[in-house]
Amino acid sequence: MENFYFALGLTIFAGLSTGVGSLTAFLSKKFNPKFLAASLGFSAGVMIYVSFMEIIVKANEELTAIYGISRGEILTVLSFFGGILMIGLIDRFVPSPENPHEIKNPELMDTKDKEKKLMRMGLFSALAIGIHNFPEGLATFVAALDDPQTGISIAIAIAIHNIPEGIAVSIPVYYATKNRKKAFALSFASGLAEPIGALVGYLVLITFFGDGFLGFVFAGVAGVMVYISLDELLPTAEEYGEHHVAIYGLISGMALMALSLLLL
To answer: Taking the model in full, what pTM does it have?
Structure first.
């Protein structure tokens, strides 16, 4: 039971880290493309590094221990690309203007119906973030139940990744309403999908839990993180900032994640 509450606490921490991004509604009077680009690149670096250096390794260890080296490695690879397929399908059904990572510069939008468009963007971003965070919450929760250290690594990666998502909600809502508290509250609340996803997923999938299941989940999570980084975070970072800003952010994210793994 102690592990259960620890895992749930990590999941809540990861999900509500959107609130850090939400604070941009209070701290920023002007949209800052370079800051956003660096943040997105940083998130991508964290997620890519932890996916290949921690999560996929853990998945391979779990599956090869059960199914043998050859079959276990094949299942790890299939699960990795299965995670990519899953998040790819989710993105496919989330219209690109409302995708939480495809953030629009409010200052470059048409003035006609600007406030309505911005408010719609913020609301749909919150909904899209909820869809994305649901499986992320389950992954963090399951990982922490099995191995607290791995759970901490995943939680840190997802928490950092969620900060730009908070920006994606708070900035357009603030520009639409000029209400900082409303922008913060909506963005912060969107992170609740993470612990909700953890609990619902746990209750639904509890009958399938076992070492093999955890291995499949870990590999799938690695695929999800790599897909989000390469398909959404890095391209958006390149769009809104100088190339080197995005790359410096990427390398900084990798360095921080490497340091945290060495210290854990």
So the answer is: 0.67
Torsion of CA 13, 15, 20, 21, to 10 degrees: 160
Structure tokens at 81: 């690309």
Distance CA 182, CA 204 (A): 34
pLDDT digits (tens, 9 = 90+) for 80-119: 999 899 878 877 776 554 455 455 555 555 554 556 665 7
Contact at 8 Å (CB) between 140 and 199? no
The dihedral through the CA atoms of 64, 66, 71, 77 has a sign that is: negative
Q: Do 109 and 175 meet the contact criterion of CB atoms below 8 Å apart?
A: no
Q: Report CA torsion sign: 226, 232, 233, 234.
A: positive
Sequence spans of domains, the chain: 2-21+41-263
Structure tokens, 48: 């890519």
CB burial of residue 51 (10 Å; 0-12, 13-18, 19+): buried
